[in-house]
Amino acid sequence: MPPRPRSLGLPLALSLLLHLLLLLLFAFHFNSAQAPALPAQPEVMEAVMMDEAQIQAELQRIQQAGQPKPEIPPEKPAEAPAPEQPHPVELREEPSVEQQQAAEQQRLAALAAQEQAEQQRKEDEKRQAELAAQQEAEAEAKRQAALQAQRDAEAQAAAQRQAEEAAKQQAEAEAKRLAEQEVQRAAEAQAAAERQAEEAKRHAAAVAKKQAEEEARQQAEREAKRQADAQAAAEAKKKAKEEARKQAALEAKREAEEARKAEEEAKHRAEAEARKQAALETQRAAEAAERKALAEAKRRAELEAKKKAAEAAARKKAEEEKLRQQQAQETVREALEKEQQAEQAKEAKKAAEDGAKAWVRNNYKHPVERRWAKPPSAQSGLSCKIRISLLPGGVVADARVVESSGDDAFDRSAENAVRKASPLPWPDDPKIAQVLKSEAVTIIFNPKD
Question: How many domains, in total, are found in the chain?
């Protein structure tokens, strides 16, 4: 809410009253210095003077009544010092025209001050009535919203109950339909079972008849086979005797042939053994010569391998040294590149931070001070430091005083002004925006009166 304009009526009236009092004091001092001749029976005029203590008491009474403290202009220097005691002063002289005019002006000023105070009181009562009406309207709106929410909840509950009842009825109807279908399927299954039983009975009778016929046929076949087997057994016995005679002749012939073959095999084995021994001797001599040649070749190969290994080791060492130097150079180059990148990143970060500070300094002071409501207790020259956390777009996430001004009301009003100014201006530069989003910013709140 913007700050209310300060009322100037009461301070102006008090200032006029103070000037009138000073004018009266000056007139009194001037008349006393001339000391004119007085008549024998002068009229007595009473004048009431107000000192600084009375003015301060009146200001305190106004402040306790909820009025803002008026600003008292500095007193003009008087030509004559005011009396120390604010007691009524009796002047035993005729009031002059100037004094009467001054008294009339004082009375008019007092009436104007009283009228101004009454007008101020009526305005305060009007504002309080408007505030009370606004609060009552807000309370009524909240109550209506609560009643509407309650009615909506009841309607939703009723709709849910109706839906549950409809679902229950639908489930019962579906269960009844399924039960009827089940009964119908059971009746159909029973009828089908009866038909299958009748069919099985007829089939069993036909199968039994067929099995009886098949059993009779098989019995006849077995009898015929038994007779044929007996005849075949007699013929087989006769044939077996003839086969045994032939087998005995063949066995004798086979044994003679085997004896002849065994003799030939023994002769062949002896010849083969002699050839084998000669071949072994020749093989042993060849193997000895081969082993000697292999040893010589191995020795030469080992020497050649050692030479090649030494050359390979030297080449490998040179390559490793070259690779190590290349890796060292690469490491140094990467370190220099990383250092340069880090320095560039540091400079970019510092530039972004400086840009963010400049942005905050140039764009946040005015919007915050424009939404500041000065508290009654705030004095000129107060200052506090506020840390602000921002979201993208300039939305204020948090605002807290980190260095107090010494006046709690002033600090709270500063925090509220920052929150009311949300969203604050947001920069187009993505680097500055990133700094504002990732780090809290600090502003010094020192509004000018």
Answer: 2
* Proportion of the chain above pLDDT 70, given as a percent: 82
Domain ends where: 118, 146, 174? 146
Q: Which residues contact 74 (CB under 8 A, 6 or more apart)?
A: none
Q: Which domain CATH number covers 370? A: 3.30.1150.10
In the numeric block, which tokens belong to residue 101?
């005019």
- Compute φ and ψ for 107, nearest 5 degrees: -65, -45
pTM for this entry: 0.29
* Distance between start and end Cα atoms, the chain: 18
Residue 179 lies in a domain: no
pLDDT tens per residue across span 307-326:
999 999 999 999 999 999 99
User: Does some domain include residue 205?
Assistant: no
Q: Which residue has the tokens 């109950």?
A: 161
Domain-embedded: residue 437: yes
C-beta separation of 368 from 421 below 8 A: yes
405 is in which domain, residue-wise? 364-445
**Digit-coded pLDDT (tens) for 346-388:** 888 888 888 888 898 888 888 988 888 888 877 888 889 999 9
